[in-house]
Write a structure and sequence with these properties.
7-stranded mixed beta sheet; alpha+beta; about 600 residues; about 55% helix; two-stranded antiparallel sheet; 18 helices
Length: about 600
């Protein structure tokens, strides 16, 4: 059976020593009183819930899955899931970072991110139920009417109700301009919604008495394409003016998808047969409103793979220290045993360090992004809010695609450490691989994220936001450029930071002649950018570690951080050279292939 220990020390290192979040919070009135002791106490209790309540249900939930009653359209979740959710709500975790105006605790988003990393390590399928609710809350908080906020936000905040987003239809996934769900205006100002949705995570369950569906649909006068999409809130049970539940709305689960992973989450097929909903935001502007939830979900999906990478690494490390196999190439290490533990073998260490480095880089990026969100939402300086928002927009596709791709690499590497046992269910490793695989697909495939990064976020504004991140890299290079002890961390990011704008310009000019050039280069480009981002954070982590060691701190944590950073720059970061070369190979070798693909 697998085990899980929340990585509290690494979270505290990033929050307090690298990013100094309490200093950042002092400029934000609503968070000015949040101190290190509060942060540490919240993280410790969150870790206990993840490890002691959610984690023990992970394998059993995967084995049991969800069951649909075709007559009642009700879904039963795996044994233990519903009581765990009740405990989650009772502990106030659903309300952690929500607005106090609606019953929330008002703590920083960065703490909510750390909570969900641990929940995703513990049980991704279970964590998706409250996770999606938080996205629905964010969307209605930003775009809902006063009446919608009054009716829905207090119950989403408390966890009394949960939320979903209903986008995908059988004939359209990412290309939402093709959706056919209809919304007919009614005399009382509500709308009658009709259509079919698929792949709706947490679309039906037994956790709560009501589910708040956010549904994309078309009004009768809607223009074609994505400019004709509106957003509606369509509850499972209609909500009376006083907040009590009314009659059942005809929005039903008609089937559950049979999936490769996340079996404990109800991925629902939804039939909407004249259900009554209310408009969120402006007519035909639904995609902009839904993007609040979609972007939150993309950051959340990156967090899912971070969680799985961490738990897979922990279990592979423990196994590698215990499993005896052959002798070390450089001589016997365990003389009192018939063979050496496999952790003595170079390639086993490489697989373990790959997962460790990708987890620690991802954690730094996730905490950085949610700190930016805290500033974007609440900082008193408009320029800080604007810059923070732009940086989050730039980094979101990297969070979603780079972290989930790395999660695929890492969970597979950790399963490989187990050898044949990794392929056997009882060890838990094959489930981490299966559960992670969806993260590269949903909320916009990683290719879509790559096109978004290169085409919209970088070339779309002539690299202006990319230059803002480049300035952060340049500042660190200037600060540490003459420090010989930092050279192994600074020189790689200095070189790539100089090359990336030129590389971007080259692809952009090719794209003006042939747009397929951008499409052919985008995936490679995102990984190059991802490595620059990870490299920047590893350099910052190494900077702190070196300062602590120089000051006489003998905590082995800092030496371990340096060793991980050295491995990252020596073994993983150099991938960028190959990626830039393959990106420059152009589109012809991909597109001029009709014979090969006949």
């Amino acid at each position: 059976m697998p085990a899980y220990t929340p990585p509290l020390r690494d979270m505290q290192f990033l929050l307090h020593e690298v990013f100094k979040v309490t200093d950042e919070f002092k400029a934000i009135a609503r968070h000015a009183e949040v101190d290190a002791d509060t942060i540490n106490a919240v993280l410790q209790e969150a870790g206990k819930f993840a490890a002691e309540v959610a984690f023990p249900l992970n394998i059993s939930g995967d084995t049991e899955g969800c069951r649909l009653d075709q007559q009642t359209h009700e879904v039963t979740t795996p044994q233990g899931f519903k009581p765990a959710y009740a405990q989650f709500v009772e502990g106030g975790w659903a309300a952690l970072s929500c607005d106090p105006a609606y019953g929330g605790q008002g703590l920083p988003l960065v703490l909510n991110q750390c909570l969900y990393e641990m929940l995703n390590s513990a049980n991704q399928a279970w964590a998706m139920y409250p996770g999606l609710s938080h996205g629905a809350y964010e969307c209605l908080h930003a775009h809902g009417t006063d009446e919608q906020k009054k009716l829905y936000l207090p119950r989403l905040t408390s966890g009394e109700w949960t939320g979903t987003m209903c986008l995908t239809e059988p004939h359209c996934g990412t290309d939402l301009g093709l959706l056919r769900t209809r919304a007919e205006p009614l005399p009382d100002g509500t709308y009658k919604i009709t259509g079919n949705k698929i792949f709706i995570s947490a679309g039906e369950h037994d956790f709560t008495e009501n589910i708040v569906h956010l549904v994309l649909a078309r009004l009768p006068d809607a223009p074609a394409g994505s400019k004709g999409i509106s957003l509606f809130v369509v509850p499972k049970f209609k909500v009376n003016a006083d907040g009590s539940l009314g009659e059942r709305n005809p929005i039903y689960c008609t089937g559950l998808e049979h999936k490769m992973g996340i079996h404990g989450n109800a991925t629902a097929q939804i039939a909407i047969d004249g259900a009554i909903g209310t408009l969120v935001g402006q007519p035909h502007k639904g995609l902009a409103a839904m993007f609040v939830m979609m972007n939150a979900a993309r950051l959340g999906v990156g967090n899912q793979s971070l969680g799985l990478t961490e738990v897979a690494y922990q279990n592979a490390l423990a196994y590698a220290k215990d499993r005896l196999q052959m002798r070390s190439l450089s001589g016997t290490k365990a003389k009192d045993k018939p063979a050496d533990p496999i952790i003595v073998h170079p390639d086993v260490r490489k697989m373990l360090l790959t997962a460790k480095a990708y987890a620690e880089g991802a954690r730094a990026l996730q905490i950085f992004c949610t700190l930016l969100l805290d500033k974007a939402h609440s900082h008193p300086d408009e320029n800080v809010r604007k810059d923070s928002d732009e940086l989050v927009a730039l980094l979101t596709p990297i969070v979603k695609a780079f972290i989930t791709d790395n999660g695929h690499i890492s969970t597979n590497a950790c399963m490989q450490v187990f050898g044949g046992h990794g392929f056997i269910k009882e060890w838990g490793m094959e489930q981490f691989v299966r559960d992670n695989r969806i993260n590269m697909i949903y909320e916009g495939t990683n290719t879509i994220q790559s096109l978004d990064l290169l085409g919209r976020k970088v070339l779309g504004n002539q690299g202006a936001t990319l230059k803002k991140f480049g300035k952060l890299v340049a500042q660190l290079v200037e600060e540490e450029g003459v420090n010989e002890k930092m050279a192994e961390f600074i020189n790689p990011i200095a070189y790539l930071g100089d090359q990336l704008p030129k590389f971007t310009t080259e692809i952009g000019l090719r794209g003006l002649q042939n747009p397929d050039e951008v499409g052919a280069a985008a995936v490679d480009y995102l990984r190059v950018a991802g490595h620059l981002v990870f490299g920047y954070f590893f350099a910052r982590m190494a900077q702190v570690a070196l300062r602590e060691i120089a000051a006489g701190n003998q905590d082995p944590f800092y030496g371990a951080k340096l060793q991980t950073a050295r491995f990252y720059f020596a073994k993983l970061f150099p991938e960028t050279a190959t990626l830039m070369r393959t990106a420059r190979a152009g589109s012809q070798v991909v597109m001029d292939t009709d014979l090969a693909l006949a």
